[in-house]
Here is the input.
Amino acid sequence: MKPSAYNYRLRKTEGEIILYNTLNDSFIALTDKEYDALNKECLSSISKDCLETLFDNGFIVDDKIDERAILRYKFERARYATENLVITLAPTLNCNFACPYCYETPREGYMSDTDFGHILGFIKERFDDTRFKKLQVNWYGGEPMLCFSSITSWSRCLIQFCEERNIAYTSHMITNGSLINSQNIELIKDCCITNIQMTIDGWGEEHDKRRRSKDGSKYFNTIIDAVLLAAKTDIEVSCRMNVDANNVSDYYRLADRFQHIPNVYVHIGHLRDYGDLPTEVFRCFTCEEFSAEECAAFKRSGYSVRDLENIFSKRHIFCGACAENSYVIDEQCNVYKCWNDIGNPNRIIFNLNEDEADRRINFESLCAYMAWNPFDDPNCGQCIWMPICGGGCLFEKEELGAPFCYPPVYTVDEYLDMYLKEVYGDEGDQKG
Here is the structure.
């Protein structure tokens, strides 16, 4: 027997030490003597009852067990799972906003019915190959609401396709919210769009300064109204606020505004500077600084035990960019793996205007995601938080030239203390 590679010493109190196992979501309280024996692998000096508890909860494992190999296997299994097909569609890269931090290069042009026909054909190809059981479609852009009349028509086609094959269908939209109104909100619901993400980057003038419209209009109040409209129509709304040191205080005002509105969830996002943000407006946080702000916002949110459990839920793979059955498609039928790459000609995997047999595959771009494995990274591969992080965002690692860690890792003790208090009355005795 040997100690698990995923034992984390949470804290030491008088006479006992609290351990957390990131692989098994287990907590245990040990005496100083028991902890020293475990840490030094002197298991023979630990009582039989304690050893059984340690083994049952994953704090010690059989000598033959390679926990990292098990995690690596789960990563690969998740990567090549085909039960679900996730398609992110950008019917245009045009947008009525010109946000300074946007990583996309806007362009004119809209997806046609012919283009959508190629996409539907691709979805049928994937079904014939994998017999997936669930189709998730994310409407993206640019600003997808600029193409809303087409989205309503295409959604009916997708819904019918799934109904005929007994496939579960879900749909989401990422939008700036400026074009949502009382005339189209019911149509959005009819498209089976059950979740909408809208970004609100400050209160009032602060938002309009950061998320500028091309025509100079101020849209803060319009977007607030759109959130309320969607929530009233039983559409779940995820309000994202990209925060930095100059606007983070507005987060609490936004959170308070929607605190008692059903179906509305406010969360903060980490604003990134890829080199050209105006410093008079933006002052970005480091990963550690953002994690502290995120934790502070979480504490103030009136969190539940379920919220805490979600923070430490297992993530065998970080995102669909590294997964087999996940694709991003733009208005020209170019296919990508990551939606951060959309519009970048060097990142196109193939184009759906070509017949399946004749498609030219950009293996350099494809393999940048599908051949990457975080376990090959000397830092990630040995990291105790790999069961929860899943390796992090590859795009961010490449763009920033530094590891992109799951934010709660930097404030993990605070989250775990919250969990112990909620579940065990701060006693941390057995399995979490």
